[in-house]
Amino acid sequence: WILSLRIGKNKIQYSNDRANEIIESAKKETATLQKEKELELKDKWYRMKQDFDKDTKQQKHELDKQEKSLLNKENSIDRKADLINKKEKEIYAYEKDLKEKDVNIMHMRQKLEEKIKEQNVQLEKVARLTQDEAKQILMDNLLDEAKLETAKRVMELQEESKLTAKKNARDVIVSAIQRSAADHSVETTVSVVNLPSEEMKGRIIGREGRNIRAFELATGIQVVIDDTPEAVVLSGFDPMRREIAKMALENLITDGRIHPGRIEESVDKAKKEMEDIITEAGQQALMDCGINKVHSELIRTMGKLKFRTSYGQNVLTHSIEVSQLCGMMASELGLDPSLAKRAGFFHDIGKALDKSVTGSHTEIGYEFAKKYNEHPVILNAIRAHHEDVEFTSPISILVQAADAISGSRPGARRESLEGYVQRLIRLEEVASSFEGVTKTYAIQAGREVRVMVEPDNIDDSKSFVLAQDIAKKIESDMEYPGQVKVVVIRELRATEFAK
């Protein structure tokens, strides 16, 4: 028993010693692991601090750039404000001067009316005629003069029509080419991109606006995010850049991954797709015009005109229409229709290059087409369609005429449409300014104005005189293409009821 007791004590002692050794070893190992973790955490914290400092420095750099840009814009706005103030002062002084002149003109007009009255009285005394008798004599003379002028004009027109019958027939053919009228749409400076949900707006903006800044920097287009439900607006004056931005943003929305790196990839992809779209547009335009054997660079350059407008008219559509008009006119006049189509198609090619090259679009287009060995007639048509140089071929004249027809048609261009409407209004105002006129109607695209008069105040003889007076006033006060026909209508109705 004593032996067993001692052996047990020894085992217990050994176990305690062993346990103490294990505990000490565990403590040392724990301390070692703790030091390693501390070192690892310190290293990770240091790297995070470096990344944070780098992001902070980059954001600060961007903020500095934005601050400089805003400062430049503020300076520009201040300069414009000063210029506007200066213009306002000049306009105020000019308006004041005009008012003084109006007052002087009124005084002079009153004096002139008094003088006219005095002269009328003296004339009545000298001529021994009343005003009514003098008017009757004047009316008889005017009627005789009008009949004589009408007869002379009819004879002149008959002689002219005999001498220039063939030319007049060609003019009629040129007028008939308006059957090729095309629809024109006005380009705007904004594009709308639809969103699947309102949440997508926040993803487009990104953390602290990082995504939207990266997108605007990559595309050069401003992204406008407002209260419009499920839509954002892309604003910019370059239609091609705006279309690239729209394609890139739609791809980002479909993919769902929106961050600066992905934005750059999407914009680059959209630019490559835009090159394909430009080439396809140029090839389709050539097919529409029936033109072949064209250099690939010319095709690509013409395709760019799909995203270029002139006074609201799409330049590529305008070029196709001019080409078709030239082909039809050349066929009717016995010229080469293929060469005429080609000249009309390339006449505005310089507008696809004039943003990057100095000079007028006629000179730029001439040099560019000459580089790819186009026909001399085509080169002259490009260079001369705005009369910068002399015409060397009838086809060049056809290109100028077709360009004017395509651009001047009412509705083809925004500015021309406004001028066209203002001309119609002005025609009616001029005709309505005469005494005895009740209503006026400008018809036939401003080529005819019909004047309704009071039958009690204007008789048949006065109607002819009134038509001449209105025509003379239109000639002196207005500018218009061609001629304007003035028709005075006097209608007297007698009504009675049978009971």
What does this structure look like?
The chain has 499 residues and is mostly helical. 69% of the residues lie in helices and 7% in strands. The chain is built from 15 helices and eight strands. It has helices at residues 2-127, 131-163, 165-176, 199-205, 210-219, 239-255, 260-289, 296-304, 315-333, 337-346, 361-371, 376-384, 394-408, 414-432, 460-477, and strands spanning 190-194, 222-224, 231-235, 309-310, 313-314, 437-443, 448-453, 485-490. Strands 1-3-2 form a three-stranded antiparallel sheet, with helices on one face. Strand 6 and strand 7 form a beta hairpin. The termini are far apart.
Summarize the structure.
The protein has 499 residues and is mainly alpha-helical. The chain has 15 helices and eight strands.
> Can you list the strand order of the major beta sheet?
1-3-2
From the alpha carbons, calculate the radius of gyration and give it in angstroms: 42 Å
Number of strands: 8
| Beta fraction | 5-15%
How many DSSP H or I helices?
15
Which H/E pattern describes the elements? HHHEHHEEHHHEEHHHHHHEEHE
List the helices and strands and how they pair.
Elements: H1 2-127, H2 131-163, H3 165-176, E1 190-194, H4 199-205, H5 210-219, E2 222-224, E3 231-235, H6 239-255, H7 260-289, H8 296-304, E4 309-310, E5 313-314, H9 315-333, H10 337-346, H11 361-371, H12 376-384, H13 394-408, H14 414-432, E6 437-443, E7 448-453, H15 460-477, E8 485-490
Parallel strand pairs: 7-8
Antiparallel strand pairs: 1-3, 2-3, 4-5, 6-7
